[in-house]
Design brief:
Strand order of the largest sheet: 4-3-2-1-5
Distance between the termini: 114 Å
Oligomer: single chain
Largest sheet: 5 strands, antiparallel
Helix content: 55-70%
Order of helices and strands: HHHHEEEEHEEEHEEEH
Radius of gyration: 35 Å
Strand content: 15-25%
């Protein structure tokens, strides 16, 4: 008797399950179709948007950033549509998602600051990939502008990551925008030196160097007269890529020319009388 009741109970449960499956299958099938069509549509939209950005010559960093934001927004909308089609109430889900977003936002204020800084850098472009900049006490060539940090490569090939928050709010010196740089070199010469002769020697060295620009013209002048030496300021211009080499060449060639003319370079004298 009990076995018979169990059989009827199982049969009733089976019928009920099959009925639910039959009733629910249209929603499930339509939700799956929406999911796959949505994934394909997102990929198609992503490709189309990237092509439009390339045709409009948008900055590559900005293009990637906007494309990433768009694809994630579309994914969230697709997910909400998918669970809504399954019959799941979305209002409570959206409320939970909003509360979670607020909690995450409060706990990641520093990261959000870096995110906002990255947005400002990408939009206003104080520098681009390939530019050499000085900021936050470091100098390097911009290798990559990411959403949260900017990646720099220093002259000795060290990789430096600078948070975008402090980078966007601080002073940035872009050494590449103008395409050329001026060197500010200084020689300390003895008071026995004929200043005119020394200046002529330096001007001759700068004019004969093939990588010193003719415009703007190089300049040599007396910067200071100290208790122990004449400070001669040497200011040639060069292209950005030649800056280091030209600086080294000018210093070396001026030193050689001074030695040939008997001009003494005054060593630095530290005052230890106090």
């Amino acid at each position: 008797m009990e076995a018979k009741q169990d059989f009827f109970s199982f049969e009733n449960y089976s019928k009920g399950f099959l009925q639910i499956l039959v009733d629910y299958s249209p929603k499930l099938i339509s939700a799956i179709i929406i999911l796959f069509v949505g994934i394909y549509a997102i990929r198609l939209i992503n490709r189309l948007v990237k092509k439009i950005m390339i045709k409009r010559n948008l900055d590559p960093t900005l293009s990637k950033f906007l494309a990433d934001i768009l694809i994630w927004v579309l994914r969230v909308l697709l997910f909400v549509t998918f669970i809504s089609r399954l019959g799941i109430e979305t209002s409570s889900f959206v409320a939970i998602l909003g509360a979670a977003g607020l909690a995450v936002g409060l706990s990641l204020q520093g990261s959000l600051s870096n995110f906002a800084g990255g947005m400002l850098i990408i939009v206003f472009k104080p520098f681009r990939v390939g530019d050499t900049i000085e900021a936050q006490g470091v100098i390097g060539t911009v290798s990559e502008i990411q959403i949260f940090v900017t990646k720099l490569i220093s002259a000795n090939n060290q990789t430096i990551f600078v948070p975008n928050g402090i980078l966007s709010n601080g002073i940035i010196t872009n050494l590449s925008v103008a395409g050329m740089r001026r060197m500010d070199l200084v020689f300390s010469l003895s008071y026995a030196t004929d200043i005119k002769v020394a200046k002529d020697i330096v001007m001759e060295v700068m004019k004969n160097h093939p990588k010193v620009l003719k415009t703007p013209e190089p300049v040599v002048l007396v910067r200071d007269l100290t208790d122990s030496a004449i400070h001669l300021a040497i200011r040639p211009w060069s292209k950005n890529e030649d800056f280091g080499q030209v600086s080294s060449d000018i210093l070396q060639q001026c030193k050689t020319a001074f030695d040939e003319k008997g001009i003494t370079i005054q060593p630095f004298v530290r005052d230890v009388s106090k």
